[in-house]
Amino acid sequence: MKLKPATKLGLNIVLAVGLVAFGFLVNATYQRYQGTGLSRLPQTSGAREIPSSNQRIARPLATISTLVSSYISGETGESEPGASETTSPAHGAVGRMTDELQLYPSVTKGMRTPFDLWRYYGRGTTSFGSPVLPMRFEQWLEFHRKQKPGLMADVRQYMDSRFDFSGEAIPGHTMSGGRKPVMVGPVARLPEGIESFEELAKLSPQEIRERDLFPYKPLCHPLQTNAHMLFPESWLEVHPEHRRIDVDFDIPDEYLPEFPPPLFLTTHKELGDIANGQEITLDNYYEIFDGLLTPEQMEGLKELLRPSPTTWFNHTSHRLTESPSQGVACMDCHVNGHTNGAIELAPDSRPNLARLRVDTPSMRGNYNLMQLSSKRTIRSLDHFSEVEEYFDGDPGMQQAIGPRAVKREVTNRMADFNAIIDYPPAPRLNVPGRLIPSLATESELRGEVLFHGKAQCAQCHSGPAFVDDYMHDLKVERFYVGRPEGPIKTFPLRGIKDSPPYMHDGRCPTLRDTVEFFNLVLELNLTEQEKEDLVNYMLAL
Amino acid sequence: MSAPRPAPDLSFHIMRLALGLVYFHFGILKFFPDLSPAELLASQTMMRISWLDAHQALFYLAVFECLLGLMLLFNVGMRFASVLFLLHMAGTFAPLFLLPELTFKIAPLAPTMEGQYILKNIVFVAAGLAVFVPVLFNRTAPHSAAEQAVMAVHS
Fold first, then answer.
1. Which residues of A touch B47 (CB under 8 A)?
2. Is residue A169 part of a domain?
3. pTM to 2 decimal places
4. Burial class of residue A187 (count of CB atoms within 10 Å of its CB; 0-12, 13-18, 19+)
């Protein structure tokens, strides 16, 4: 088939015009797709419109003309993913901060996620989980058998790029059980070109952000598509039933709380560590606590020790253990009322990729807290127990995996036990929680002055438990490009040396790292000696 | 006697345009995050065979497919296009080996929807051969003995 050159040229011009028009049509389709139930892109206009049938026909044409004119004029359309912060409510979302973020990658259960998920945003296809795997269970096992070695190699490389886990301990300092040393810090690695934390602290937040120098960016779950409870090696050696097929823990045991930790009761301070170095289990709790607790507390403790099915630890094929699992008990993470350092995702948000990694907080001193949970601001211990019993808070999943078994009167009992778990002794503190000078070192005393003064710690960490019971937004996103994490509850500092790693996601593996973190975030300009004094003071709390 | 190979007829151009349009269409979708139904499979495959992350993988794949589509549509650079086509086809079949858990209910005969979507690409391969073989080889050259044998069977 031979065509004249002129005819051929004409046809090519028609084709080129057609393709350009086609491109605009796809773009217009994209604008209409955003914010619908199928889209992972959050809605960009003030309210979801339901157009009339006439509008449905007219809108694509109007959109195309708008797009053409905006392309020609070089302006972006109002519905661009990176809509400006200053957009009015009628035309877009006020306060939107997505300009520098990327849309979450398209992934399904089990698939690897970027380790820097804070740089992404987007909505999920639904708020509700599904108990259906994307493949047969045999394939699920095989998929993870193939993926896990490579994933863990990358996880180790990533963690090594962020932290220098040298394993060096602070001489003469152990956690309250007396068996595990407290580690030297800081272990966060400084970015290339920066010689010291003092040099870094001299830079403005904006410069640190622009040069991507912040060493304390968030930590994500190493496999956030599955996420859920991830136990450290010390726990798995004793409880191999909780070893996951998909991923292992990413922080070395030296930088985690001692296992098993001591348990102190407000009602029996004279007995010291009630657990006496043991892990409290369903098998031994009665023997240890009978005659010491009230019947209600005993019932509550038993419930805290009783495993219940969770999203990924259960008897169905929607699981991350090779064999069917009995589930997880509250005190599998909150071992002996404290923590073994296991991580989860905070249950307060969706999609799962947006949920923040959270360390297991200690239950010590919960009796004093007016709000519980890092993001949920739960106001009572029985509600807290109810939430914890089914961590991911997904009624849809419960239907398939196991119903919420605990009724309100039982969660009240769980709270009864929770309410008598005490902090470890702090013999060098007086009644108002200040150091007794005759028992403290010079460095600790200087640290106390700094704590209440220049370092501004006491602004939030005040009172008998060194906590103000408020949520604070540190606005750490000033220092790196990322999704803002919003307000997070202040953590009590009583007995803080027992609870590494620090911050809600463990991004500060040592106390010294937390001092470096706040020195940057609060722009304190602390000296080396002042940082050392603050660490020594916190070791005494 | 070898018969001279005829110049490409209308069916050749229709096949070429159809291939080009499909490549261009499916390629341009990948420029828009979340719009392409192949996003998951494509990005996961690319991430397994390259050093790219999901976003980079999709972007470069979009560029690749659109370029190939345009070359087919405008009938330019067909020799280079044939190389791109072969690379792309190899890539599209890769999930069958790299992600068998997502492409087969039970390998190798019971594919999932995604697996079936990939297996159907065998028609694409055939169409590609129909388009590229006349371009890559001299159009007026005589048919090979093997081609003559095939033609004899189907005549």
1. 112
2. no
3. 0.86
4. buried
